Amino acid sequence: MIRPLLLAISLTAPLPVMAAPNAQLVASVQVRLDQLGFSDVDAALLSTRQIAALHTQLQGDALAFGPDWIRTRQKVKAILRLDPPRRD
User: Fold this and answer.
1) Which UniProt keywords apply (predicted)?
2) What are phi and psi of 13, to 5 degrees?
3) Would you kindly state where each structural domain of the chain is located, as residue ranges?
4) What CA–CA distance (Å, rounded) separates 42 from 21?
5) Phi and psi for 6 in degrees, rounded to 5?
6) Distance between CA atoms of 81 and 85, rounded to whole angstroms?
7) Which pLDDT belongs to residue 7?
8) Residue of 63, 24, 16, 21 whose CA lies nearest to 46
9) Which one of 11, 40, 43, 85 is most buried, counting C-beta atoms within 10 A?
10) pLDDT tens for residues 26-81?
């Protein structure tokens, strides 16, 4: 008797859609975006999957100048086009 009631209550409770990205991770991505020339992009407005993709993309020698730097900029542009910025 109590179990079905608890199940019904738990299913009707509002659930968060998605957790916000970690503030330290967002700040780290913002610094790297600034270094690549994307200082007009506000990392705090990006989606969680964009922050994660940028963090992964901007590891290691990705910021070294040369052919890799150009490819990195192209990949960052593609990631930034994934989702429109959110306005929370």
Assistant:
1) Signal
2) -70, 140
3) 19-80
4) 13
5) -65, -40
6) 9
7) 65
8) 21
9) 43
10) 999 999 999 989 999 999 999 899 999 999 998 877 777 778 888 889 999 999 98
Q: Are 63 and 72 in contact (CB under 8 A)?
A: yes
Local structure of 50: helix, strand or coil: helix
Which helix (H) or strand (E) segment is 33 a member of?
helix 23-35
Average pLDDT over residues 8-35: 79
More confident residue, 38 or 10: 38
Please give the Cα distance from 49 to 26 (Å, whole number): 12
Compare 2 and 7 and report the one with higher pLDDT.
2
The two structure tokens encoding residue 80: 């930034």
Q: What type of residue sits at position 49?
A: R
The answer to whether residues 81 and 54 touch, using CB atoms and an 8 Å cutoff, is no
